[in-house]
Amino acid sequence: MRILTASPEKRQNLIPWLLLLPLMAYLLAFFFVPLVQVAIMSVTEPQLGLGNYEKVMTSPLYRKVFINTFSTALLVTVCCLIVGYPIAYLMAHTTKKRAMLILMLITMSFWTSFLVRTYAWMVLLGRNGPIAWVFLQFGWDEPPQMLFTRFASTLAMVHILVPYMIMNIYSVMQKIDPSLVRSAESMGARGLALFRHVYLPLTAPGIANGAVLVFVICLGFYVTPVLLGSPREQMVAGLIGRQIEEFLAFGPGSAIAIVLLVITLIVLAIYHRRFGLDKLYG
After folding, report:
1. Which domain holds residue 21?
2. In this structure, are 29 and 114 located in the same domain?
3. Separation CA 242–CA 261 (nearest Å)
4. pTM
């Protein structure tokens, strides 16, 4: 009786899939199964049907929260770009020693949790914090309300997310061939014209990578907007948490989560069509 055995080439091709099995099992158990459960609850709680999705699409409250979430995510992305681009440019055009020092300072922010950094901003922006003290020293009788405002949550989210923007732009700037810039200079390009027509287009992939990454992460931010933001300007993640924790409305909360997931996938699909998801992390 002949025993069929796999050829060495087939066995070699199976090795990558076998190595991926633990990761696939983990994602199946802790991501896909809960996601399917959320999708089922969105159409079965409190009763079978698409009533939850109809409510999400037609309710002025939900519409306002989604608009606030996307406007805040866009604002945070723009602020991260304004702050991150000059820092990335400095890193790419300074000595390696200084670039590594700046890179170390940036990566140090990843060593501290979102929650700790959020509470730090609560101390800084509080009524008795150092920023309020500075206002008092300049003659303000009553410091402006900074905590529990959209300004506070936006500022904290920019602080948390700007390293992602810097790392993406810096990784692209490092790969720019200096001869391209020198060639443009030899043809008369100088100053702002050189930056706008040559350097900026070359760094556009890094800007797109960082912008999409920051924007998508900001869409699902929960801790920082809830602790620092205004209740009147809550974001989608905070609304989902409130629906489930306070009202036990698992159906509407699940429907909101699925809608947010679909919108996020659409954003990523548009990015993939233009740049490719494989370039999102450099």
Report:
1. 9-44
2. no
3. 18
4. 0.87
